Amino acid sequence: MDFAAFRVLEPLCWRAPSAHNTQPWRLGYQAGAIRVRWDPADALPAADPSARDLWLSLGAFVETCLVVAADAGLMIEFVPDHHTGDRRVGWLRPSRRPYVTPFDAAQVLTRRTHRGRFSAGPEDEVIAAVDAVAREAGGTVRVVPDADLLARLLRVADRQLYADPAVVGELRSWLRLTPVHPDYHADGLTDRCLGLSRGEAAGLRAALAAYPVLRRMGLPRLLAAAAGNPLALGGAVIVLVGPSGIDSAARVGFGRVLMRTWLALHAAGLAVHPLSQLIDAPAARAALGSLLSVTPERLLHVARVGRPAGPATRSARRAGGIGYAGAGMRRSAVEGPREVGQAGDQRAEIGEDAAGPLDDGGRDLRGDRRDRHHEDRFGHQGRR
Description:
alpha+beta; NADH Oxidase; single chain
């Protein structure tokens, strides 16, 4: 395999979704293989303590790499090799046959997260198709039938998450609520992706700046109420359910399944709005599991799905080319550690949308980054 050719395509691979649009993946080019790793600075230990969203994001990135490479005629495969100590999930290696996929690079590029209004929900045959994708891996896709209960669970989840200072600080660190933010074109959740007006973004910034003082005076409840009810914007809510007893490596595999379901929905003219708070908040997760008659640990991802009534804003990426990061781009995040056999600069990263507390991760391990822009960041409902 021509690794130089794949390196040129790498920016497009960064269009994979991640919680809070943190883009945690890193590629290390070595002789004969490409190591797929993650950066713990781009994880979400408060909002995602089980690392469920981290593993899903990494799997989505792997699947995106395979789709992009196949579309370019490059024959590669993914070999799982999960090692937490090395922060590694596996290897991309040359293959004797191309990766078989119905999707292409154009669909990777044009897919969006959409937090706005849906003109219609998914057709039954589309739900059946994405369910078939999940069943091939031992999972299933379920439609949640009770919209009134879901709306109540969303309020409970939002209040619980907004009441946790660690979760709020983490969310805030990945918000870019003004175009002057140095990372506005690189990562995180922007005001435009969240569908906020200039006044709404300014109000959210002010509220979050006052959070340490007003938290005990009812601010979390007010923030949850201000989030509104996204279910009123139409569509259906679907849940990706995994098999019992899956470990972290298997969750990476289901990240690949999640990416395939998203691409299948996009190919059908549909978009997704992740509602990860329904799984992130323990009380809401338990109630949702009871509603679907599955154990809460099997719930992997929740999203509102439908036909967008209007265009969605593309989320940023740290890579050059599409979604160029601009002045806020950090060289260390783009290049990562220099690997054996790695030549030249790795300047490409790309971005995607965000949605709910599951949007591209942000761990509390990057103190200088978090503290420097703390007053500008906070958000909810953001991922992939």
